[in-house]
Amino acid sequence: MTWADVMTAVVEDDHLVITIADAGRRTVRSVAQGLIDCLEDEPPSPWTKVGRARRRAHERLFPPAYRSRALSVEFTRRHDATIRADLAAAAQRLRDGLDGDGPIRWPLDDTDDWVRVLGTARFLYVDRQAEPGVSAEEGKASMVLAFYQSVVLKALRPDLVEALPPELVPLRRELLREERT
Amino acid sequence: MAGGFGGIVTDWQIIVTADRVNSALSVVHALDRVVGLSRDNALAAADRMREEGLAAISSPSQQAAESTVARLRGYGLDASVAWSES
After folding, report:
1. Which of A47, A46, A50 lies closest to A124, judged by CA?
2. Rounded-to-integer distance, Cα A6 and Cα B51, Å
3. Which of A35, A168, A170, B3 has the CB geometry, 3.0–4.6 Å to A91, for a possible disulfide?
4. Higher-confidence residue: B1 or A2?
5. Interface contact flag, B29 A71, Cβ < 8 Å
6. B77 pLDDT band (50/70/90 cuts)?
């Protein structure tokens, strides 16, 4: 089995049609729930293991919005709740849309739910340097999500894939190399 | 584009900082969807991020820059607000 067998996506009749193996479906559902938990309004106490992990993920996902700490705090006050609610809503739609069997048909207008959730959920596992937080497994989890996101984006944006110069697509090169082996 | 800030003419900017997590494809897609950059300009911004570590995009006001940064964060990008005084 190659990566390409695990998940495919094609555009058909104003929908993105995603075929994903059962294990992948369970993974994405779990990841979406993890993101929802991370974005909830009242996180667990920072004195607990879960609370510390969520705080770290939140900091990785939302670095300071300004160089000035005071302005960053103001930005958070003005925008943080909206950003979290909007992203959590996308993750809820994704989680709920993974119920059932068979190909997943997603309206094209809403496909950025997939792009956003798969992109942001990687920070549950790695920092901005792609370094895993606790174990090597977290690095692998992040790479799997990157692959899923690339499948979705390649189906949605073939124009961009064609236009990207080779030096800007190291991920694509890695995946193509893996598919050949 | 310039705007007022404490009596000083200010150019507001959206800064998108490169990381090792987001792919060029996802960055260009987000810049297209959120900022409305043309494909060529979004590709140029991704190239600047690769070369220089960040790309700066002008914004008409602090409020507009913050709104755009908030949406880019929803895609996982390391986006922030900066300004230069002139």
Report:
1. A50
2. 34
3. A35
4. A2
5. no
6. very high
Nearest CA in chain A to B62: A75
Residue A102 C-alpha from the chain's centroid: 22
Tens digits of residue pLDDT in B25-58: 999 999 999 999 999 999 999 999 999 999 999 9
Domain boundaries of chain B, sorted by first residue: 19-81
Are the beta carbons of A62 and B73 separated by less than 8 Å? Answer: yes
- Reduced to 3 states (helix: H, G, I; strand: E, B; else coil), residue B57 is strand
List the end-to-end C-alpha distance of chain B, in Å, as a whole number. 11
- The ipTM (two decimal places) reads 0.88
CB B25 within 8 A of CB A163: no
Q: Residue B29: which of A65, A67, A160 has the nearest Cβ?
A: A160
Is the pLDDT score of B2 beyond 50? no
Select the residue of A122, A157, A172 nearest B76 (Cβ to Cβ): A122
Report CA-CA distances (Å) from A82 to A56, A121, A134, B71, B75: 20, 17, 29, 10, 14
Closest CA to B23 of A148, A135, A111, A34: A148
Residue ranges of E strands in A70-151: 104-107
Distances (CA, A) of A31 to A90, A170, B73, B85: 12, 24, 18, 43
According to DSSP H, which parts of chain A are helical?
A: 3-6, 22-39, 49-61, 69-97, 112-121, 136-156, 158-163, 170-180
Distance CA(A102)–CA(A113), nearest Å, equals: 19
Closest residue by Cα to residue A111 from A142, A143, A82, A154: A154
For residue A168, give the 3-state DSSP assignment.
Answer: helix
